[in-house]
Amino acid sequence: MKVIASQVRKGNVLEIDGRLYVVLSAENFHPGKGTPVTQVDMRRIGDGVKVSERWKTTESLERAHVEDVEFDYLYEDGEGLHFMNPVNYDQIAVQADVVGDQKVYLQEGMRVYLKIFNDAAVSMELPQRMTVEVLETEPVVKGQTASSSYKPAVCENGLRVMVPPHIGVGTRIVINTADNTYYERAKD
What we know:
The chain is 2% helix and 52% strand. It is mainly β. It folds into three domains: 2-62, SH3 type barrels; 67-125, CATH 2.40.50.140; 129-185, CATH 2.40.50.140. The strands form four sheets. It has a five-stranded antiparallel sheet with strand order 9-8-7-10-11. It starts with a strand and ends with a strand.
């Protein structure tokens, strides 16, 4: 399936010169002068080599046909990360490099989508937002405005996030999993 370069997103699988690549990040640049381009960082599925490419935003790219299958995360051991299909209870072991830096979000029983190509998982898609608890942050300072001052916080999964000043230790927050940023205070 053909897509234009500006529509490429993290987790997509592209086919370039007969090889498959998983997109790690994609950014569109629109300079004041010149042609807008899309910068894409990818990992080659065959050997795990990271590649960086730049295309005009209107260039056409070949997106590989992969199947999005729902799985529940079970546990991690020496073989890798184990997932179970909730429909037929089949289990699959996925190497840690396929999951990458998204591993910090995985919680037991969590539902994710694995992109399957030729019976092998090539990438993982998390829910767009996740709720986590703040374990460490600076204390709330009375009278500090919430305008644009953010402070660092460490979450229960070990992730470092910049949060507004009113967020204290023990507060549950919602994080955007795509870019690891604070979204809102959890409503639960």
